[in-house]
Amino acid sequence: MTIVVPCFSCHKEFSLNVEAEDFYDWREGLSVQNAFPYLPDGDRELLISRTCGVCWDEIFSDVEEDEFASS
User: Fold this and answer.
1) d(CA 8, CA 45)
2) Residue 57 burial (CB count, 10 A)
3) How far is CA 51 from the centre of its chain?
4) Residue 47 to residues 10, 13, 17, 58, 64: CA-CA distances in angstroms?
5) For residue range 6-58, what is the model confidence (pLDDT) as tens digits?
6) Cα(67)–Cα(59) distance, rounded to whole angstroms?
7) DSSP strand E in 1-71: where?
8) 5: helix, coil or strand?
């Protein structure tokens, strides 16, 4: 099945092809990583945060790697 996910920041719509059973399992609480191991990381992030890769990079471009390491 194809699902359309809009980015909350740029409002561009992205079409993702997923198995219907996997989508149902995810909506029922299965983690996105376990439900869609075949999707690229960026597509899974889009499902979680509704942020596309380009916008994600823009939003977090000022965050340094060291800030994540100290969390």
Assistant:
1) 12
2) 11
3) 7
4) 15, 12, 12, 18, 24
5) 999 999 999 999 999 999 999 999 999 999 999 999 999 999 999 999 999 89
6) 15
7) 2-6, 13-17
8) strand
